[in-house]
Amino acid sequence: MTENGSSRTSRRTLLLAAGSAGAAALAAGCSGQASTRGAAGRPQDPASPAPTGPSAPACVLTTKAGEGPYYLDLDRVRSDIAEGRAGVPFRLDLTVLRVSAGCRPVPGAAVDIWHADPSGTYSTGKDTFLRGTQLTDAAGRCTFRTIVPGWYRGLAPHIHFKVRPDRHTETTSQFFFPEELLVRVYALQPYARRKAPDHPNTRDGRYRDSGAAMTLAPVPDAAGHRAAYTVGIA
User: Fold this and answer.
1) CA 118, CA 58: separation in Å to the nearest integer?
2) Distance between CA atoms of 152 and 121, rounded to whole angstroms?
3) What would the pLDDT profile of 206-232 be if each residue is shown by its tens digit?
4) In the chain, what are the domain boundaries?
């Protein structure tokens, strides 16, 4: 774990400094057989040839958004970030592509995600729940296992993410969820301990601005859900 102003070098920084190929090798187990999702929302089997024509996933720059007040650089390199927090299981498969290089995969990129728990609370201080970092593999992929995020007043439920392909650049944004899924999830415990808004998304101006591009398309997965998304960086 690192602290602001510390002279310590984090594990993530060392991996990034090692170069994309070396970092990808160290992160080889990151994603398994995850599928990818383009901005068009179409799943793609990574073992299949890249689709062509109108059905191909779009390769576009990801809409950027602020990181909010709850980002912490904790250097927690891990796939499972739930830390025992109760909630509906959620698996997020990400693929990072560099749009300016012909949509080539970006290996060895550090990907951070963080979000609120069912009570609408973020981990702070010494807590690390629902936060973590993964390094993309040779195909630009990584996977996080977490829970569906809770809501808090005024904002659509979301998962923050930050992609750092090297030590000097980053892309920060957030994912939203379909409102019909949120309504179903928030009727379950432990989410139901608080009465959720009838329309948790549409009251958020950021969702109205970028929800069309940044809303995930979850599908059932055992006792929970999973979604995949292709993150396009410059």
Assistant:
1) 32
2) 8
3) 999 898 899 999 999 999 999 999 999
4) 11-233
Q: Report strand pairing: 89-98 vs 224-233.
A: parallel
Q: How far is CA 132 from CA 71, 123, 189, in A?
A: 11, 11, 24
In this prediction, residue 202 carries a pLDDT of 86
**How large a percentage of the chain has pLDDT more than 70?**
71
Q: Are 217 and 41 in contact, with CB atoms under 8 Å apart?
A: yes
pLDDT band at 58 (very low <50, low <70, confident <90, very high): low
Q: Rounded CA gap, 162 and 62, in Å?
A: 11
Can you name the residues that pair with 226 across neighbouring β-strands?
91, 219
Residue 49, pLDDT score: 33
Q: How far apart are CA 103 and CA 222, in angstroms?
A: 32
Exposed (0-12), middle (13-18) or buried (19+): which is 214, by Cβ within 10 Å? buried
The burial class, CB within 10 Å (0-12 / 13-18 / 19+), for 160 is buried
Task: Please determine, for residue 186, whether its predicted confidence score (pLDDT) is greater than 50.
Answer: yes
Distance CA 102, CA 217 (A): 25
CATH number, domain 11-233, options 3.40.50.1820, 3.50.50.60, 3.40.1190.10, 2.60.130.10: 2.60.130.10
